[in-house]
Specification:
It comes from Clostridium paridis. The protein has 91 residues and is an all-alpha fold. The protein is built from five helices and no strands. Helix 3 crosses helix 5 and helix 4 packs across helix 5. The longest helix has 17 residues. The chain is elongated and about 65 Å long.
Length: 91
């Protein structure tokens, strides 16, 4: 998200109205419901993590320890266990 100067996009009357409630500062204007996107929809992050988690589960199933997986993927052992538990649910 990038910031825009209000005076560059809003009519002067609207700026004055907003200033009655907040004179200076930042305001977040949320997206309309129909324009909202789910997390990871704009990038490949969601698919990358899904593939990584599947890989972790497969290595665990092949006998690699939680400790070794945590070191390999730079995650805590608790995170590795959570990933394994979640993958078992989806299988």
């Amino acid at each position: 998200m990038k910031y825009e100067k209000a005076q560059n996009i809003l009519p002067h009357g609207i700026i004055e109205l907003i200033q009655k409630y907040m004179d200076g500062g930042y305001i977040y204007i949320p997206r309309k419901d129909e324009n909202k996107r789910s997390w990871g929809e704009n990038t490949e992050t969601k698919s990358y993590l899904k593939e990584r988690d599947r890989e972790i589960f497969n290595k665990y199933s092949a006998g690699i320890s939680v400790k070794c997986l945590a070191e390999e993927y730079f995650l805590t052992e608790g995170s590795i266990r959570r990933i394994i538990r979640n993958q078992k649910i989806y299988d």
